[in-house]
Design a protein that fits this description.
By secondary structure, the protein is α/β, with parallel strands linked by helices. It is built from 8 helices and 5 strands, in the order E-E-H-H-E-H-H-E-H-E-H-H-H. The protein has 2 domains: about 5-165, Nucleotidyltransferase, domain 5, CATH 3.30.420; about 165-215, Arc Repressor Mutant, subunit A (Orthogonal Bundle). It has a 5-stranded mixed beta sheet with strand order 3-2-1-4-5.
Length: about 220
C-alpha cells in the first residue's frame, strides 16, 4: 500500500469568510507519527493545541495541500444561483487535491449522508488511481483525517483573523454567533454587504427580510 491521505474542510457552514479544504498525506510510519502527536478532530481541541499541532505537522515533513474557497465562489456554486451545489464544488476541490498528492487511499470526511454518491463525485476525475473511502465524522475516526481537519481549521482561523482586522469584529462568522448576526444586520442597515459575506445563504435572506419589515 502506498501513501494514505486524509481530507477535511473548515468553514463550510459559515455565513462569513472562506471555506478551506485540506488534504494531508502520510505513509504508515507517518500515520504512527500522527498517533504519537495525539492528533484529534480539530473541533475537540483548544485553539492553542490546534496551533501547536499544526506547527508540528509543518515541521514533520508530511505533505499537505489546501484549497481556499472564497465566498463568491461558494455563492456561485449554490443551486439557487443555478450552480451545481456546494457538495459538487467540494467534491471537485477534493479531487484536485488528490490529483496533486496521488495517494493510494484517501479517507474523506463526507459532507453528504449519501456516502456512495459523494465518493463517486470525488472519484470521477481520478481514473481509479486512488481508492476513496468516504465516511461521516471521519475526522473523529482516523488520525490522518484529524490531521487534515487541523490544517483546515488553523488555516481558516488565520484567514478569518485577517478579515476581522479589516472589517471589524464579526465573531466566528457562523450563523449561531450573535456577534456575526449583529455585524450582518449593521451592514444591511448601512446599505451594503461586503464581499466576505455569503450572500446566497438562507441566513442572509432571513435577516434581509426582517430588516425590510422594520421599515
Amino acid at each position: 500500500m502506498g501513501e494514505l491521505c486524509g481530507v477535511d474542510e473548515a468553514g463550510r457552514g459559515a455565513v462569513i469568510g472562506p471555506m478551506v479544504v485540506a488534504a494531508l498525506s502520510a505513509d504508515r510510519q507517518g500515520v504512527r507519527l500522527l498517533q504519537a502527536m495525539g492528533v484529534k478532530d480539530s473541533k475537540k481541541l483548544s485553539e492553542v493545541r490546534r496551533r501547536s499541532l499544526f506547527l508540528q505537522l509543518k515541521a514533520s515533513g508530511l505533505r499537505y495541500r489546501v484549497k481556499v474557497v472564497k465566498p463568491e465562489m461558494i455563492n456561485a456554486a449554490l443551486r439557487r444561483n443555478a450552480g451545481p451545489g456546494i457538495n459538487v464544488l467540494e467534491a471537485r476541490l477534493i479531487s484536485s487535491l488528490l490529483e496533486e498528492l496521488n495517494p493510494s487511499h484517501a479517507y474523506i470526511d463526507s459532507p453528504d449522508r449519501d456516502l456512495k454518491r459523494f465518493r463517486e463525485m470525488v472519484a470521477r476525475s481520478l481514473g481509479g488511481r486512488t481508492r476513496i473511502i468516504c465516511e461521516n465524522k471521519a475526522d473523529s475516526k482516523y488520525p490522518i483525517v484529524s490531521a487534515a481537519s487541523i490544517v483546515a481549521k488553523v488555516t481558516r482561523d488565520r484567514l478569518v483573523a485577517n478579515l476581522r482586522r479589516k472589517y471589524g469584529d464579526f465573531g466566528s462568522g457562523y450563523p449561531s454567533d450573535p456577534k456575526t448576526i449583529l455585524f450582518i444586520r449593521r451592514c444591511i442597515r448601512d446599505g451594503a454587504l461586503p464581499d466576505i459575506v455569503r450572500r446566497g445563504w438562507d441566513t442572509i435572506y432571513r435577516i434581509t427580510q426582517t430588516s425590510l419589515d422594520e421599515f
